[in-house]
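Worked problem 6 (solution included).
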Amino acid sequence: MRVTLDGVVAGYGLGDVLRGLDLVAESGEITCLIGPNGAGKSTVLRAVSGLLRPRKGAILLDDRNIVGISPRHLLELGVVHVPQERSLFPLMTVWENMLMGGFIRKGRKEVHMRAEALAERFPLIRERSGERAGSLSGGEQKTIEIARALMLEPTVLLIDEPSIGLAPKARAEVFKTLSSLSDGGWTILLVEQNARSGLAISDRGAVLDGGVVKLAGPGKDLLEDPEVGRLYLGLGSTAA
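Solution. The predicted structure is:
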């Protein structure tokens, strides 16, 4: 399902963060959003998921404008948001967390079948199924969060800075998980602080600055663009 943001203006209180933003995320592709702090990357995800209503502009799922639709209804339409913050229930087991991910699906049998299918795709689920989620490493927890989001059989997956705060080994685990999603047919909007790694696994990328898209193109092309490298991928740049 294609996601299109057309002239979106949105923000918090009296301040606009997105200032007429135009962006297209193609069906079945990973699109990575990079840019400096405050550029509006996470705000894009909040607008698409219905957590923030734009003041102007349109957000389209294919040809349907979803501005004003509630987050719950958007979940039912297949738009699933994996937030930056840890969202597992730490005292519940990994398996219990997975089953909780199917809360809006009908039928206990269907939920269990979906969890079993995801356990085949993500071996970590089965390996650690009986352990409390809070005992997992940061990278393992983020992998389970992403897998749990797939319990809802999304068409659009919004993933906000999945590697933030993780050690290098844990970051590598998360990027391996994200890369494995490329064959799933999901439309994925990824916000990632590690711009190099995010663009490397993405079909397309977009550079946000000042609440608008400054540059967009294939992820590998942006990685090789000297201007993008100087401004957003250089040593000491947070690129997020």
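Discussion: Strands lie at 3-12, 15-25, 30-34, 56-61, 64-65, 79-82, 156-160, 187-191, 204-209, 212-218.
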